[in-house]
From TrEMBL:
This is ABC-type cobalamin/Fe3+-siderophore transport system, ATPase component. Residues 3-204 form the ABC transporter domain. One of its GO terms (molecular function) is ATP binding. Keywords: Translocase, Transport. The keyword Protein transport does not apply. Signal peptide: none annotated. It comes from the Bacteria. Gene3D superfamilies: P-loop containing nucleotide triphosphate hydrolases (3.40.50.300). Coiled coil: none annotated.
Length: 229
C-alpha cells in the first residue's frame, strides 16, 4: 500500500513554497552511482493547479503526454501506451471529451485531464498542487476517491490543500503549515482538530465524528451562524 501525505496550509501560505519544503527532503533512487534524468521523470508526476498548452491539443493528446518519458526521441506510442492512455482517461471520466480541444474544457474538466495525464506516466509518487481547487463538489469526491484508490494500489501521493476536510477524507499522514513553518504533523485524527484549525485559519470551526452508512467519519464543519430555513 502507498501513503497519502496531505499538507494543509493557510490561505496566505503559497502552494509552491509548501511543495518545495517537501521536495527538498526527497531524492531520486540512484543507479550505477547516479540518478538518471529519465528515471526521475518516471518516478514523479506533478499536477499543477492550472495549465495552458502552447498548441491546440485535444484531451487525448494532453493525456498521452504522460507517456513521453517512456518513448525514445522519435518513437511513437505503441499498443501498450495507447491502452494505458485509454484506461487513465476512463478512470478520470475524460474519455467522453477525448477529441475535444483541451482549451475548450472548463477549469474543472481540464484538471481531471491533467490528473489523467499524470496517471498515464505511472509514477511512484504523485504530487498534486491543490487538485480540487477548480472542481465542483461531485468531481472533488471523484478525485479524493482516486487518491485513496491509488494509495491502495501502492502509489505514494503528496497533496497540498487549503481544505482540511480533504485531509480527513483521504490522508494517512498530515503536515500543517503556517507562515512557512510546520506547526503540526501526524495522523489526521491526531493533528486535524478544532483548536489547530481555529488557530491557523482564524475562523470558528468544529471537528467532529459523525455516523455514516459505512461507519464513523471525521468532518470539519464551519460555524457561520444559525442554519437557514
Amino acid at each position: 500500500m502507498g501513503v497519502a501525505i496531505v499538507r494543509v496550509h493557510s490561505f496566505f501560505e503559497g502552494s509552491f513554497h509548501v511543495l518545495i519544503h517537501v521536495l527538498a527532503r526527497i531524492s531520486g533512487r540512484k543507479r550505477s552511482g547516479k540518478t538518471t534524468r529519465r528515471y526521475r521523470t518516471c518516478l514523479f508526476a506533478y499536477i499543477p493547479q492550472t495549465h495552458t498548452p502552447p498548441f491546440p491539443f485535444t484531451v487525448r493528446d494532453v493525456v498521452a503526454l504522460g507517456r513521453t518519458p517512456y518513448l525514445g526521441q522519435f518513437n511513437r506510442m505503441g499498443a501498450t501506451d495507447e491502452a494505458i492512455v485509454n484506461e487513465c482517461m476512463e478512470r478520470m471520466g475524460v474519455d467522453i471529451w477525448s477529441d475535444r480541444p483541451y482549451t475548450e474544457l472548463s477549469g474543472g474538466q481540464q484538471q481531471l485531464a491533467l490528473i489523467a495525464r499524470a496517471l498515464a506516466q505511472q509514477p511512484q509518487l504523485l504530487i498534486m498542487d491543490e487538485p480540487t481547487a477548480s472542481l465542483d463538489f461531485g468531481n472533488q469526491q471523484l478525485v479524493l476517491r482516486q487518491v485513496r484508490q491509488l494509495t491502495e494500489d501502492g502509489m505514494g501521493v503528496l497533496m497540498v490543500t487549503h481544505d482540511p476536510s480533504h485531509a480527513l477524507a483521504c490522508a494517512h499522514h498530515v503536515v500543517i503549515m503556517e507562515a512557512g513553518t510546520v506547526t503540526a504533523e501526524g495522523t489526521p485524527r491526531d493533528v486535524v482538530d478544532t483548536a489547530c484549525l481555529e488557530r491557523i485559519y482564524h475562523a470558528d470551526v468544529q471537528v467532529m465524528d459523525v455516523q455514516v452508512p459505512k461507519g464513523i467519519q471525521r468532518v470539519c464543519v464551519p460555524l457561520i451562524g444559525e442554519t437557514l430555513t
